[in-house]
């Protein structure tokens, strides 16, 4: 829903729009005086919102004052502790902040059940660094809560000051990881403000005192983590607030205005009207290619391999990247043979246009954060994601600026989402395609020998393609060879704690197109269980030790898989010479009626070599189905429980 408050317009600072998503999720403080604690609050024995809660917020209040040059936010939260787990969770508080933000007036106190109070000493508040990612260092004002135990009330207050900043594009989060009896935002605007609400019905700001507006929710359950759930913005209660002096219009009007602004800001006309230099370059690059796809592939390969991508250059520090003079145009990128990820994508658009194709810049949603719906008219929901080029009446999408995304694909979070295809005159709304499961596969090969004491020993090769390859490379490209090997060992040991791994080889970690490959030797004592003259062995080595995907009987949120994927296992286990298989029974084929997913396991024995042969084929996401409503939980759970049972299928070997 969209609502309007306030009266006049100011500018946005990008810093605020980034930080508020995190800042509203921390605890504590506000006005000069503590509020009285009621006898009912002191006497509370059980939660009111969620019966099994370890702690519950009695109230959570944030006052946002944007009426002056600095943006000021005052926080005040009161929490009742019910259990030991609640005590542990709230025994230490971190108030995060980044450079430029001031944290002031941090106070806290504990109220015991008899009404006595213990206040936090100012000297007990200290500053520490809690995270550092790329260019952003996150610090925190931290303190240990004194005398905390089940039954007490803990309350915190503090103030955030954002110098010369605005509440434009601010996110207000009404649901957190603790149940809340009442959460209220007070907002004093500097301009005509509007807001969009999500997962909170028609909650509205109403006029309050001293120029503030007030929005509240009551009895808000905690946001909880579930296996394969959508991004939190799809399930939690929140709103985004922004300033505007535009009259109310529909989403089409909004995106027309926003698209025009983006086109000017990004100088799309210059990108899509290449000069003679780039036209000559396109002709040279595509020489010998006849079909559109052949031309696209040549331009893509040029942009990806001939242009140095400074965004992903591990030899440069962040400061060194900042010192590099920005490219002024796509021709500049071509001449320098280097640029950022954005520069490389824009160059691809220029070269594709120069080769005679219609190209547009795609601005779309990020499925890892939120499912973009163009009817939700706000620019923070889109970003520059890829280049769209039309061939044979269809749009094809390319992202050469992301070095590990294979040709013909986008990163999983950029696929299957609404996009605005921007030219310099107009825009088109459409959807990006989703890659089939077979193109994002794990091909897993194991060649093992089983000893009569149950020890399994042999070699493994795993080859990842598509999204699987992309994610492995993205996770590993900054790491040293030693770190990559340690990560692999730790991943294996999560499911096979006794595994002994050696001779690790990791291939194509930095290659832009080839599959990501692991090879290693492994030894697992007691892999097969020996009882008397029998050995019990699970031939599905790659699923050994895996837990069922869904463990809870009930479900609160929809079920969401990031992308379709496939697994193809080829395993051979040479059996002990003095043992034979009692029965090579196979679990067989499992599939749902809609063929969204299939698991097919076949087991055989080569009697001449006394070798067990295990073949497993699996895929999920047929028809692009990766999102399921809550009502589908039981069928989905039943299907994966059946998969888990088949994967854990055990065979019996008998001593001759």
Could you please describe the fold and organization of this structure?
There is one protein chain. The protein has 13 helices and 36 strands. With 656 residues, the protein is α+β, with helices and mostly antiparallel strands. It folds into 3 domains: 2-243, Immunoglobulin-like, CATH 2.60.40; 253-431, C8orf32 fold (Roll); 438-655, Sandwich (Jelly Rolls). The protein has an 8-stranded mixed beta sheet with strand order 6-5-9-3-2-11-14-13. A hairpin with a 2-residue loop joins strand 7 (126-133) and strand 8. Helix 6 (276-285) packs across helix 10 (341-354), helix 7 (292-305) runs antiparallel to helix 10 (341-354) and helix 9 crosses helix 10 (341-354). The chain is globular. It starts with a strand and ends with a strand.
Structural class label: alpha+beta
CATH architecture of the largest domain: Sandwich
User: Which blocks of ≥5 consecutive residues have pLDDT under 50?
Assistant: 6-31
> In the residues, how many domains can be counted?
3
End-to-end separation: 73 Å
* Largest sheet, spatial ordering of strands: 6-5-9-3-2-11-14-13
Shape label = globular
Number of helices: 13
CATH class of the largest domain: Mainly Beta
Mean pLDDT: 92
Annotated CATH topology of the largest domain? Immunoglobulin-like
Helix content, binned percent:
10-25%
């Amino acid at each position: 829903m969209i609502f309007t408050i306030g009266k006049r317009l100011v500018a946005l600072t990008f810093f605020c729009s980034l930080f508020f998503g995190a800042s509203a999720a921390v605890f504590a403080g506000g006005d000069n005086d503590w509020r009285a604690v009621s006898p009912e609050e002191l006497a509370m024995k059980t939660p009111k919102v969620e019966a099994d809660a370890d702690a519950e917020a009695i109230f959570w209040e944030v006052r946002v004052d944007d009426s002056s040059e600095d943006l000021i936010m005052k926080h005040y939260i009161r929490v009742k502790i019910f259990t030991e787990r609640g005590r542990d969770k709230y025994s230490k508080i971190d108030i995060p902040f980044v450079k430029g933000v001031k944290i002031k007036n941090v106070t806290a106190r504990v109220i015991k059940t008899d009404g006595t109070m213990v206040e936090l000493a100012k000297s007990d508040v200290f500053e520490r660094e809690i995270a550092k990612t790329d260019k952003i260092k996150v610090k925190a004002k931290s303190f240990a809560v004194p005398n905390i135990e089940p039954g007490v009330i803990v309350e915190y207050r503090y103030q955030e000051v954002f110098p010369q900043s605005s509440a434009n594009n601010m996110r207000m989060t009404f649901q957190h990881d603790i149940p809340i009896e009442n959460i209220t935002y007070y907002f004093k605007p500097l301009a005509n403000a509007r807001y969009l609400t999500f997962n909170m019905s028609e909650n509205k700001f109403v006029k309050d005192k001293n120029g503030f507006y007030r929005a509240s929710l009551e009895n808000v359950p905690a946001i909880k983590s579930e296996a394969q759930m959508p991004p939190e913005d799809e399930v939690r209660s929140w709103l985004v607030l922004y300033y505007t002096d535009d009259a109310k219009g529909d989403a089409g009007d909004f995106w027309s205005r926003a698209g025009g602004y983006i086109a000017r800001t990004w100088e799309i006309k210059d990108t899509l009207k290449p000069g003679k230099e780039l036209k000559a370059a396109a002709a040279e690059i595509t020489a010998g290619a006849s079909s559109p796809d052949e031309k696209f592939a040549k331009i893509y390969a040029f942009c990806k391999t001939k242009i140095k991508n400074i965004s992903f250059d591990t030899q440069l520090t962040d400061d060194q990247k900042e010192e590099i003079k920005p490219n002024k145009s796509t021709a500049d990128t071509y001449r320098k043979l280097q640029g950022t990820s954005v520069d490389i994508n824009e160059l691809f658009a220029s070269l594709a246009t120069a080769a005679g194709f219609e190209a547009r810049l795609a601005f779309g949603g990020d499925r890892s954060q939120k499912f973009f719906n163009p009817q939700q008219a706000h620019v923070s929901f889109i970003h520059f994601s890829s280049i769209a080029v039309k061939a044979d009446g269809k749009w094809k999408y390319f992202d050469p600026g992301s070095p590990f995304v294979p040709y013909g694909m986008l990163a999983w979070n950029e696929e299957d989402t609404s996009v605005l295809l921007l030219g310099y005159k107009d825009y088109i709304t459409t959807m990006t395609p989703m890659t089939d499961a077979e193109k994002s596969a794990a091909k897993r090969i194991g060649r093992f020998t089983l000893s009569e004491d149950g020890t399994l020993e042999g070699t493994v090769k795993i080859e990842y393609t598509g999204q699987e390859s992309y994610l492995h490379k993205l996770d590993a490209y900054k790491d040293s060879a030693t770190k990559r090997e340690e990560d692999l060992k730790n991943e294996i040991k999560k499911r096979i704690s006794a595994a002994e791994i050696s001779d690790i080889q990791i291939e194509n970690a930095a290659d832009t197109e080839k599959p990501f490959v692991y090879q290693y030797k492994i030894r697992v004592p007691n892999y097969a269980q020996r009882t008397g003259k029998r050995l019990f062995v699970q031939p599905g080595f790659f699923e050994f030790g895996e837990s069922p995907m869904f463990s809870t009987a009930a479900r609160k949120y929809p079920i969401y898989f990031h992308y379709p994927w496939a697994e193809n296992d080829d395993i051979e286990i040479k059996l002990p010479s003095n043992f034979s298989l009692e029965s090579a029974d196979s679990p067989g084929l499992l599939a749902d009626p809609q063929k969204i997913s299939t698991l097919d396991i076949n087991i055989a024995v080569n009697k001449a070599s006394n070798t067990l042969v295990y073949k497993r084929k699996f895929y999920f996401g047929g028809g692009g189905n990766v999102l399921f409503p809550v009502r589908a939980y039981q069928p989905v759970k039943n299907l994966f429980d059946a998969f888990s049972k088949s994967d854990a299928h055990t065979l019996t070997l008998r001593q001759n």
